[in-house]
Specification:
Blueprint: E1 21-26, E2 33-37, E3 45-49, E4 64-70, H1 72-82, E5 103-108, E6 114-117, E7 129-134, E8 143-148, E9 164-169, E10 175-181, E11 184-190, E12 196-202, H2 204-209, E13 219-224, E14 228-231, E15 246-248, E16 260-264, E17 280-284, E18 290-293, E19 299-302, H3 309-312, E20 314-317, H4 329-332, E21 348-351, E22 357-367, E23 371-381, E24 391-394, H5 397-426, H6 429-435, H7 438-451, H8 461-480, H9 483-499, H10 510-530, H11 534-537, H12 543-555, H13 558-574, H14 576-580, H15 584-597, H16 601-611, E25 612-613, E26 616-617, H17 619-629, E27 646-650, E28 665-675, E29 685-691, E30 716-719, E31 723-726, E32 729-732, E33 747-753, E34 758-763, E35 766-773, E36 781-787, E37 791-796, E38 813-814, E39 827-829, E40 834-835, E41 840-841, H18 867-870, H19 873-890, E42 894-895, E43 905-906, H20 917-936, H21 957-960, H22 980-1003, E44 1007-1008, E45 1018-1019
Parallel strand pairs: 28-38, 42-43, 44-45
Antiparallel strand pairs: 1-2, 1-4, 1-12, 2-3, 4-5, 5-8, 6-7, 7-11, 8-9, 9-12, 10-11, 13-14, 13-16, 13-24, 14-15, 15-23, 16-17, 18-19, 20-21, 22-23, 25-26, 27-36, 27-39, 28-33, 28-37, 29-30, 29-36, 30-31, 31-32, 33-34, 34-35, 40-41
Length: 1027
């Protein structure tokens, strides 16, 4: 923890450096506590008590790594440069010494997330923000500046181990603070100061330099004799007689129940080297319990509250002797020396209080299917055996993290199931909600589903395979530790509680919503844990489990049934044993889902997986499906031939986007030039509107079954002259017409009103009696034509892009007016894959920019101008007015009592002091906003000694002198040269000013139009600054 450049200080640990591990402690709440965070299922920080030596703190949750340390100016440059980059973490800075005044990035060691000032506030102090963990380090939320809490230290000095310091959030300029609220300790970012003491945990240099040595906090296995390791039995429980520790070989050597963490019994340098005679606790990772000794000197696992220093601390020894060496605190609270090495050092474990040695006793026991086997139970003895030596084997990081997740999930699911059992007995949902934190349960399930997510399809092959291997290991560890059974038990309990109506009283409130979410997430999690894992799926290859699966499937609502279908699909794909056990009634349940919920592709996937297993046809399932499904039904097969239909659209997109400048009433027409029947089917032609949220016009595409044209799915709305079409269903609007009523020479008008919303059509100027109402407004709408071969038609969008045959309805605009100033209109196919007859395939189609313009000016609400800047805002406002007036006069405008855009008269071409209050206020606000924006963009404004008087530009009387005697006099800035960085700032300010103006206009009801229309509130300038 010193400057890496100074060789004399290379091993000095009195200063903090980047990559060092620290704990932040304080006594603000009346007791010594450490800042801690969990990261899995709970992002908020909390406080871990470290005052009582007889109750071991979970320091693994308290360790933060100083990942980066930068000056504030360097941080601003970094954030600005990285604003367009994605990814996690920073640029890295080696082992740099930390100075007061630096901004630091603190990474939580356990979760690999970053300590951040969150945007939420759950404290009683409404001016404070929550402090927690964030998955990425982008922006300023994760950066904290370090300041001395003592007058003996000053800004720019090196930060020493043990110093008291103050941490300030860069994003909110609030202090990292802790306080008592309602008898509970909370951590937040507040205007109140808390002094934090730096407790050293370990150094980055020592971890990098001495990779193979054992450190405090390491997760490892105790190997005995090379073929067995210290673990707990698979049937372990807290009941007397079953709370034992054993030596076991075989598969357990790769399972999570054989993992232990060595925790030095001290707070300072708890992550330092483990040396001989250093007292430590040995913690079992998946149960969270500690190896301890009871009053009969028997070895067992004790809970945290019982893990006193006397009962649960051990030494590592080189050899057995009667010496009992007790080191003083000054010899213990050091980083230590690299002595004990993985795989190289043989150690003996001695209980510190009794002096007994960790050894074993052998006994014979019978195991089902194996017969008599010898088992070894770990015990404590005065002398032990000759082969009591143990070797350490470090666990993989992925393995230890999964073990921590298992401990968290085991605790949470056990508490959840216990709460459900209590609810079932006392039937009081309010007690259940107080006993179980449903929000934490939801977050935990979300994190678990992400934890077991499949690798993305576009990932590199090697990386994808590594992800698959890691995923299989996680799934195996969860199954081996019984978490899969806990999930199944929770699903059963949830179904019982739901079916008996115990949670009806919560319907509509937050707890009720969380309950519904949990019900769906449990099935998704179950599917994620078994997907692609034959061992886990094979658990369902017995009659009871399979019947359980189908009973859940048949009784579920549509949303929950989807999750259960995922589970069933995974079982059938990855477990041929389950596939061979399928019965007629099982297949009937699946087919009933088709009739209940429609042609759901997930149901069809399950039916497909029934028909083929491992590439071999399953004749019994195929025959059953044919017998039960096909007769008299067309659920699977479409036997009619249909004409190929193509869809085209112009590159125009309109929609209802909050805060955007898009007009909301549009009209266009389609002229039919030629219609000819070429097959046994009538010509296909439909005209209407489609939505970017899901319109995929080809058979099998889009949601559910996709479609052959506009109106065949839920994202498009069409008219064919006789029927209105959407979702593949038609509604007759022209009585007596059995087929499409469109013929050559017809003109179909399409009107879209997004304010209601409603879509109407006209045929040759006559309104069609039927409309689409109250459809989903997500996405952007565009006009579309779907037609078969030998049909010719034209878009009439208005203006030069096809003059309309009929006048649009009142307040509706021709669609061409939505074109941006520099946009080139094109007509493109909605889906095109080339000419298969000529073996020509197209590449990816050009992706259109279909996003609506929503001005987003820089947020300056948190910016406060220094007093010396306040003094210049009035002068800046006046100069803004003078520049505006000069530009207006150059454009041909002149003074007039009333504004006249035709004759170019403007009443504001007067002195700044004589402007109307509203106009003067606008210029002042623009000046203040400009100054605040400069600061918000990361720049600093300073004032040099200006000349006593700045010259003004001397403009000629003609044409600048106005009839009222006013002549603009802007400041002469010709002698000022701007740097490249300043030019960049000017572009940013110009864009921000445009966005401010546009946002104000949109709030006043203005929308985009090709021409300026004061009465209709349309403006051609309501477009992105770049356009």
């Amino acid at each position: 923890m010193a400057d890496s450049e100074g060789s004399s200080e290379q091993d000095d640990v009195s200063f903090l450096r980047t990559e060092d591990m620290v704990c932040l402690s304080c006594t603000a709440t009346g007791e010594r506590v450490c800042l801690a965070a969990e990261g899995f299922g709970n992002r908020h920080c909390y406080l871990e008590n470290i005052a009582d030596k007889n109750i071991p703190p979970d320091l693994s949750q308290c360790v933060f790594v100083i990942e980066q340390a930068l000056s504030v100016r360097a941080l601003q440059e970094l954030v600005t440069a990285a604003s367009s980059q994605e990814g996690k973490g920073g640029t890295g800075s080696g082992h740099r010494t930390l100075l007061y005044g630096n901004a630091i990035l603190l990474r939580h060691q356990n979760s690999d997330m970053y300590l951040a000032c969150l945007s939420t506030s759950s404290s009683n102090d409404k001016l404070s923000f929550d402090v927690g963990l964030q998955e990425h380090s982008q922006g300023e939320a994760c950066w904290w500046t370090v300041h001395p809490a003592s007058k003996q230290r000053s800004e720019g000095e090196k930060v020493r181990v043990g110093d008291d310091l103050i941490l300030v959030s860069v994003a909110t300029e609030r202090y990292l603070h802790t306080a008592k609220e309602n008898e509970l300790s909370v951590v937040n970012a507040s205007f109140h100061v808390t002094h934090w003491s730096v407790q050293p945990y370990g150094t980055g240099i020592s971890r990098m330099k001495y990779v193979g040595y054992v450190f405090g906090g390491d997760v490892l296995r105790f190997f005995h004799g090379g073929d067995e390791c210290l673990t707990i039995p698979s049937s372990w429980s807290n009941v007397s007689g079953q709370n034992i520790v054993i030596y076991e070989g075989g598969s357990v050597m790769s399972q999570a129940r054989s993992l232990w963490r060595l925790e030095l019994a001290r707070t300072k340098w708890a992550g330092g080297f483990i040396n001989w005679y250093h007292p430590m606790r040995i913690r079992h990772l998946t149960t969270g319990r500690y190896l301890g000794v009871n009053e009969n000197n028997e070895l067992h696992l004790v809970c945290r509250e019982e893990a006193t220093t006397a009962s649960s601390t051990f030494f590592l020894r080189q050899e057995k002797d009667d010496q009992k060496i007790i080191l003083e605190d000054k010899d213990l609270e050091v980083i230590g020396a690299p002595i004990i090495k993985y795989g190289d050092s043989t150690v003996l474990v001695q209980h510190s209080d009794t002096g007994l040695w960790l050894t074993y006793k052998s006994y014979e026991t019978k195991k089902k299917g194996v017969g008599k086997v010898e088992e070894k139970q770990a015990v404590l003895h005065e002398e032990g055996k000759m082969d009591d030596g143990l070797d350490f084997s470090r666990s993989q990081e992925e393995e230890s993290r999964t073990a921590r997740v298992i401990r968290k999930c085991s605790s949470l699911f056990t508490q959840f199931i216990s709460g459900l059992e209590n609810l079932q007995s006392n039937r009081r949902s309010s007690l259940f909600c107080s006993f179980v934190n449903l929000n934490e349960m939801v977050m935990c399930l979300e994190d678990l589903i992400n934890y077991f997510a499949q690798p993305e399809e576009d990932m590199e092959h090697e990386e994808k395979q590594n992800r698959f291997r890691a995923l299989r290991n996680r799934q195996d560890l969860f199954q081996e530790e019984g978490i899969l059974n806990l999930i199944l038990e929770a699903i059963d309990k949830v179904n019982i509680i739901t079916s008996q109506g115990f949670m009806v009283s919560l319907a509509g409130d937050e707890s009720g919503q969380s309950w519904d979410v949990i019900s769906g997430y449990l099935y998704q999690l179950l599917a994620a844990i078994i997907k692609g894992n034959h061992t886990n799926c094979a658990q369902f290859a017995n009659t009871n489990r399979l019947n359980w699966l189908f009973s859940r499937l048949g009784s579920q609502a549509s949303s929950e049934g989807t999750g259960m279908l995922d589970v069933l699909h995974c079982v059938l794909i990855d477990s041929p044993e389950a596939l061979n056990m399928m019965k007629d009634e099982h297949i009937k349940v699946i087919i009933s889902l088709l009739e209940k919920h429609g042609r759901d592709p997930k149901v069809l996937d399950v039916l497909c997986s029934l028909c083929v297993g491992n590439g071999v046809a399953v004749r019994s399932s195929q025959n059953n499906i044919c017998d039960f499904l096909l007769p008299g039904k067309n659920l699977l097969l479409q036997t009619l031939l249909v004409d190929h239909v193509a869809s085209v659209r112009p590159n125009i997109f309109v929609g209802y986007v909050s805060g955007s400048a898009v007009y909301r009433k549009w009209y266009y027409e389609v002229a039919i030039d030629h219609v000819e029947q070429t097959t046994h089917l009538n010509p296909h032609i439909r005209i209407g509107w489609a939505n970017t949220a899901g319109y995929v016009p080809y058979p099998g595409g889009g949601e559910k079954w996709g479609g052959n044209g506009v109106g065949d799915d839920l994202y498009s709305f069409g008219f064919d002259g006789s029927y209105l079409w959407t979702g593949g269903r038609k509604s007759e609007v022209m009585p007596g017409s059995q087929v499409s009523n469109v013929k050559k020479g017809d003109v179909i008008g399409c009107a879209l009103d997004l304010t209601i919303p409603i879509i109407t059509f006209t045929l040759n100027g006559q309104l069609v009696h039927g409309a689409f109402r109250d459809f989903n407004l997500d996405g952007m709408f565009f006009p579309v034509i779907s037609c078969s071969s030998k049909v010719s038609c034209r878009f009439l969008l208005g203006g030069d892009h096809g003059r309309l045959k009929f006048t649009p309805p009142d307040e509706f605009s021709p669609l061409f007016e939505s074109l941006l100033p520099q946009q080139i209109l094109t007509i493109d196919p909605c889906f095109y894959f080339g000419n298969l007859n000529k073996c020509v395939l197209t590449g990816p189609w050009y992706v259109e920019d279909d996003t609506a313009f929503v001005p987003n000016p820089v947020d300056t609400s948190m910016v406060t101008l220094p007093s010396y800047i306040e003094n210049i805002k009035d002068k800046l406002a006046e100069n803004i007015h003078e520049m505006w007036a000069m530009n207006k006069i150059e454009a041909g405008w002149q003074y007039g009592d009333k504004r006249n855009d035709t004759r170019k008269y403007h009443p504001c071409l007067i002195q700044f002091d004589k402007l109307p209050p509203a106009e003067k206020r606008y210029d002042s606000q623009l000046a203040v906003q400009t100054l605040k924006t400069i600061i918000a963009l990361g720049y600093h404004i300073s004032i040099d000694n200006p000349p006593s008087r700045i010259k003004t530009v001397r403009l000629p009387n003609e044409p600048f002198m106005q009839s009222n005697g006013y002549k603009p006099a802007p400041l002469d800035l010709s002698a000022i040269n701007l740097s490249g960085k300043m030019e960049e700032l000017i572009d940013q300010l110009a864009e921000n000013t445009h966005n401010l103006w546009a946002k104000e206009r949109i709030q006043q009801g203005w929308t985009y139009g090709l021409n300026e229309e004061l009465q209709m509130l349309r403006s051609p300038h309501l477009v992105p600054y770049s356009k």
